Amino acid sequence: MNQVHRQGADDLPSRAAHVAQRANWIRRSALKMIFEAKQGHPGGDLSAADILAVLYFDVMRYDASQPNAPGRDRFIMSKGHCTGAFYSVLAGAGFFPEEELSTYLQPLSRLNGHPSRTYLPGVETNTGPLGHGLPVAVGAAIAGQIDKADFRVFVLTGDGELQEGSCWEAAMTAGHRKLSNLTLIVDRNRLQQGAPTEETVSLEPLADKWRAFGWDVLEIDGHDPAALITALETKSEKPMCVIAATVKGKGVSYMENQAGWHHGCPNAEQYAQALAELS
User: Fold this and answer.
1) Residues 242 and 183: beta-carbon distance below 8 Å
2) From residue 238, how far is each of 134, 157, 185, 219 by CA, in Å?
3) Which residues contact 122 (CB under 8 A, 6 or more apart)?
4) Angstrom distance (rounded) from CA 78 to CA 67
5) pLDDT digits over 110-119, tens only?
6) How far apart are CA 75 and CA 136, in angstroms?
7) Rounded to an integer, what distance in angstroms lies between the CA atom of residue 87 and that of residue 10?
8) Is the pTM of this model over 0.90?
9) Backbone phi and psi for residue 76, each to the nearest 5 degrees, phi listed first
């Protein structure tokens, strides 16, 4: 088991450039899926694309031909509504054929609106109801700690998702057990369905909250591949929280920082504009 997508451990600029290209492909792929299906969650897909690209095309250890290999790194997509980006990165990483992306949300497709471990290789656990992914990730990290295994567990949450109490119960457990094999990435785009997070239920001071629960914290630009690579390779004696400052709808001008694009589908003119901006 090795990191087959790595570009060279000492060549950070080349690695970052490769990841940036893959992130742009994820954005284009996710928008194509949403446009053809006439539904989806484009804002969060676009904000998470760089994070997913760094994980799957640089940092994580896995073998797509053996998706359940015991030594694999685990990734849990807790913000499970953002399947356009998630399915795109899984297909791009080789877990299933890219051609299958065209079946997104169709009857009998494996590509549901929320990811299902039952149907799709590479999905560690079913997600969709927010607040579930981090508790499952903590459980996986505890299992690794007990077994003295060397795999790592990564989990991506939305920021609005952190208003769920289950996240903080999991955070407290992880800090108590010093789960050094656990890394949480918060997609901090500051928008949730309908409104800014700080108008709904304020999260700040977010970094201080994680530190108070016994975590180490890094605050970075979530659209800077080099910063993401460096942060996600950082190890600590504590669980790690990476707060990635992102832009909802990143890369498409009319979607950026617009809560209304939490979900929805562009029309033909909007789709053409989005592809042009992402070309």
Assistant:
1) yes
2) 15, 19, 15, 16
3) 64, 67, 90, 93, 95, 96
4) 18
5) 999 999 999 9
6) 11
7) 30
8) yes
9) -120, 120
